[in-house]
From TrEMBL:
GO molecular function, one term: electron transfer activity
Organism name: Comamonas aquatica DA1877
Protein name per UniProt: Copper-containing nitrite reductase
EC assignment: 1.7.2.1
Domain named Plastocyanin-like: residues: 214-318, 358-466
Phylogenetic placement of the source organism: Bacteria, Pseudomonadati, Pseudomonadota, Betaproteobacteria, Burkholderiales
Cofactor notes: Binds 1 Cu(+) ion.
Length: 479
């Protein structure tokens, strides 16, 4: 069932009363009509209390008896009152398309009381229209017994809507948008050898408007206000105490699933954090390698596509071989209602996400993140190591550097598997690799996904190499 547009909702809200946001709406007096008195149904007031929660990994409405997504039983002619509030703190609403019922958004601090009269018999789906919520379980049934009232009677019993949300216009780029692209140069330094120890890490989930492209913004969901989230670094045997805090300004629950963690759904089972809350997990780094982490709150692909991914490197006991420079790069696919190049504020498109049809492919969260926003630089003779991962949520990357060959590839980021002289390496969504290359010639080297149509959708970065060319490696022209 397609969600009504806001314009359609504005026209449809002929039976809605909202206590707390407007004076209680009274039904208009019955108009003289021969069918009205004959078909008039008995009237009662049916009251329900629904709060929201996450149950068995799904977002749901829960009644005062603890039933998830309960069937609401009423009769034709009844007036329905529903008290709504957010039990877990995230933002929600309540919709019934066929009856023209739509509540304002509500959260833990914004309860709503919805009042409307039913004049149609049948079964109608109620649901939350916040993007992603219906898809992960926020819907139930309003069951109306009896016979539908004739159209004239139904019309005469309708209330005049005082609440009618305006259609959302195409917005200009958010003037408050900030650079969210993680600097590929900023990652923890290699770790000196040490006995297993405890590390304490704190991450904050923040929802904020960010710069997706020139004159284009997007509402990102982030770890520590950047995409990807901060790179974490440990040694095998270390114990990590990780605290995840969710900003009080967030509208959604967030969490973290680290692929390096054994147990607890990677931490996702115990870090479902409501706005303004925080939770802590403790885990031991049992496996060396480079691992992705991401949000694990339904609708998981939506949270990932909005920017909620990063990586943790677990070094072996002896550490990794020394190199001259290290870079931190992640690829993601993004799904927006308008195509790449459209100016303004881009909104998420969940249907495109479900169909796996990205509008953008980005390195470090935004178009131009590794060419305009941040610079990657090296010198001839230096060995460069790139920690590369794919947040996804859906697409494989064919990682390649135009004009170079990878001297070493740690295949699938497994540190005991090294391949040499590799041109392009495949990285799955939720996967990673580590590549090393010695720079033998100056120039601009392009980081790409070798599914090259994606370069036009944002997946391109630049590594600038300066210095004198190694003799005999390359020159323009004949010998």
């Amino acid at each position: 069932m397609k969600q009504l547009s806001l314009n359609a909702l504005s026209l449809a809200l002929c039976a809605l009363t909202l206590a707390g946001t407007a004076p209680e709406l009274q039904a208009a007096p019955n108009q003289a009509h021969p069918a009205a008195s004959a078909a008039k149904a008995p009237q009662a007031v049916k009251r329900f209390v629904l709060h929201t929660n996450v149950v068995d990994g799904k977002m749901v409405y829960v009644d005062d008896k603890g039933v998830a997504n309960p069937t609401l039983n009423v009769a034709v002619g009844d007036t329905v009152e529903i008290e709504l509030f957010s039990g877990e703190g995230a933002e929600h609403d309540f919709m019934i398309d066929e009856l023209g019922v739509a509540s304002p958004k509500f959260s833990a601090t914004q309860k709503q009381k919805l009042r409307f009269q039913v004049t149609q018999a049948g079964e109608f789906q109620y649901y939350c229209s916040i993007p992603g919520h219906r898809q992960v379980g926020m819907f139930g049934t309003l069951k109306v017994s009896g016979e539908s009232l004739p159209a004239a009677t139904a019309s005469s019993n309708a209330a005049v809507a005082l609440y009618a949300p305006a259609a959302t216009p195409l917005r200009a780029a958010d003037p408050a948008a900030v650079d969210i692209a993680a600097d590929p140069n900023k990652l923890p330094a290699p770790m000196a050898a040490h006995a297993p120890r405890v590390q304490k890490v704190r991450l904050e989930t923040v929802e904020l408007p960010g710069k997706l492209d020139d004159d284009t913004s997007f509402t990102y969901w982030t770890f520590n206000r950047q995409v990807p989230g901060p790179m974490l670094r440990a040694r095998i045997g270390d114990t990590i105490e990780l605290t995840l805090a969710n900003s009080k300004d967030s509208k959604a629950i967030h969490s973290i699933d680290l692929h390096a963690v054994t147990g607890g759904h990677g931490g996702g089972a115990d870090t479902q954090v409501a706005p303004g809350q925080e939770k802590t997990i403790t885990f031991k780094a049992l496996h060396a390698g480079l691992f992705v982490y991401h949000c694990a709150t339904p609708l998981v692909p939506q949270h990932i596509a909005a920017g909620m991914y990063g990586m943790i490197l677990v070094e072996p006991e002896q550490g990794l071989p020394k190199v001259d420079r290290e870079f931190y790069v992640m690829q993601g696919d993004m799904y927006t209602q308008r195509p790449i190049g459209a100016k303004g504020h881009q909104e998420v498109d969940l249907q495109k996400m479900s169909d796996e049809l990205p509008s953008y492919y980005v390195f470090n969260g935004a178009v131009g993140a590794l060419s305009k926003t941040h610079k990657m630089q090296a010198k001839v003779g230096e060995t460069v190591r790139i920690y590369f991962g794919v947040g996804g949520p859906n697409k494989v990357s064919s990682f390649h550097v135009i004009g170079e060959v990878f001297d070493k590839v740690y295949s699938e980021a497994a540190l005991n598997t090294i391949k040499h002289s590799v041109q392009t390496t495949m990285v799955a969504p939720g996967g990673a690799t580590i590549v090393e290359l010695k720079m033998d010639h100056p120039g601009s080297y392009l980081l790409v996904d070798h599914a090259l149509s994606r370069t036009g959708k944002g997946a391109v970065g630049v590594l600038e190499v300066t210095g004198d060319s190694t003799p005999g490696v390359y020159h323009s022209g004949a010998l």
